[in-house]
Amino acid sequence: MVERKNKTASQKEANRLNPIRLSDVQADTSQRIITSIEEFNRVLGGGIVKDSVTILTARPGAGKSTLLLQISSDVAKKGYKVLYASGEESETQIRLRSNRILNHIPDNIWILSDISMDNVLRAIEEIDADLVIIDSIQTFVLEEYSSRAGSPIQTIECANALVEIAKSKDRPRAVIMVGHMTKADEMAGLRTLEHLVDTVIYLEGESDESIRTLMATKNRFGRTGETGFFSMEEEGMVPIDNPSEFFITKREDGLDVPGTALSVIKEGSRQITVEIESLVSRSFTPYPSRIGECLRKDQLNTLISILEQRGGINLYDKNVVIKATGGLKLRETAVNLAIIMSIVSSVLEKGIPNDVVFIADVGLTGELKRVPSLESRIKELDRMGYRRAYICKDGLKQKLNLRNLKVVELRNLQEVINHVFDNS
What rounded mean pLDDT belongs to the chain? Predict the structure, then answer.
């Protein structure tokens, strides 16, 4: 018994780690694998950290495997070794996809089609992989546990094994795991999985639309809420370098189409100009339709009620349909004034000039409300050459030196309606 205690004590002594000064810890850009896919780098905070564990989740068909295969190819071309382990697809299926989306298949990519995490861990050591991709974590099992694949025990223990191999001080590795998504658009499994990893990123987009949005909801190495935009094409996921141009319909000067209005949304660290379209038509049923493809139905109903009561425009016998160009989801209240003005434009059948932008929330009283980061939004509009922006009264906290943009500060919705359509 004494010998066992001594052995345990010696093991503890061997495993003991001494604290070091925070200022002595090395954390520079060399600790990241910087890909050529700038939108992906942006979401991760500048690239893949070499000893990080990331989980990517999305609906089926959103393009998770396609994006990860493109990342594998890009990283492999830079000289890193990549292991792509799939518990869902065969080697042939992965090769067929790579033939479709990759111009050239680098020699530094290894494929393993197996559900055994033990085999994956052995392959990581044999290949000495720099980047490990697991598609998907819910399909793998460790032999020492008898539960089935996808059970909480197997999922967490497989993830723990990957975290341990990624965080090795002697040989750090980057790991990207795919996680299944539930019907409620949440990552399947226990919340412990999200706490276990360093970064959680969501890939959003409908299978019948080309736009894909990549967003970080957790990131220990960068800003959360950072967003990257991609277009799903035949050759794979194509980064959208200038989202503002993608989300706006290009029209000839002087061609003002009724039912459209522009606003600016903040996605992570950048400002994006978006176009909102409205279609108002006569209803032949007792209950007119309220359809908002880009926002929640409750939000749309609230804005319509404000417009009726505070803007003096009756919509009780009208169908109202709202859509954002490019299929972008509108989550910010900064677009509320633009949504209302697009509806007004459709009702009056009068177009709003395409160099006019609306940036304000609208209260139940009809008063305009200030929105966050208003100054940076205004500066971006001025840089892009827009001529007029409507905001709330006293909305700017500092005086801006603008070259092109005229800022119109008004108090309420009725003043905006009168100003826009009296001047148009």
Answer: 89
Give the CATH number of domain 246-423.
3.30.230.10
Residue 338 CA to residue 320 CA, distance in Å, equals 15
Q: Mean pLDDT lowest for which of 125-129, 181-185, 275-279, 408-412?
A: 181-185
**Distance, CA of 25 to CA of 260 (rounded, Å):** 53
Question: Domain residue spans in the chain?
Answer: 29-241, 246-423
Q: Is the peptide bond before 136 cis (omega within 30 degrees of 0)?
A: yes
The pLDDT value recorded for residue 372 is: 92
- What confidence tens digit (pLDDT) does each residue in 366-398 have? 999 999 999 999 999 999 999 999 999 998 988
Which superfamily is assigned to 29-241 in CATH?
Answer: P-loop containing nucleotide triphosphate hydrolases (3.40.50.300)
pLDDT tens for residues 315-325? 999 999 999 98
Q: What is the pLDDT of residue 27?
A: 64
Question: What average pLDDT does range 184-192 have in this prediction?
Answer: 71
User: Which tens digits make up the pLDDT trace of 239-261?
Assistant: 998 888 888 888 777 678 999 99
Q: CB-based burial of residue 348 (10 Å sphere; 0-12 exposed, 13-18 middle, 19+ buried)?
A: middle
Are 340 and 420 spatial neighbours (Cβ–Cβ below 8 Å)?
no
Q: For the chain, what is the HEC assignment?
A: CHHHHHHHHHHHHHHCCCCCCHHHCCCCHHHEECCCCHHHHHHHCCCEECCCEEEEEECCCCCHHHHHHHHHHHHHHCCCCEEEEECCCCHHHHHHHHHHHCCCCCCCEEEEECCEHHHHHHHHHHHCCCEEEEECHHHCECCCCCCCCCCHHHHHHHHHHHHHHHCCCCCCCEEEEEECECCCCCECCCCHHHHHCCEEEEEECCCCCCEEEEEEEEECCCCCCCEEEEEEECCEEEECCCHHHHCCCCCCCCCCCECEEEEEEEECCEEEEEEEEEEEEECCCCCCCEEECCCCHHHHHHHHHHHHHHHCCCCCCEEEEEEEHHHCCCCCHHHHHHHHHHHHHHHHCCECCCCEEECCEECCCCEEECCCCHHHHHHHHHHHCCCEEEEECCCCCCCCCCCCCEEEEECEHHHHHHHHHHHC
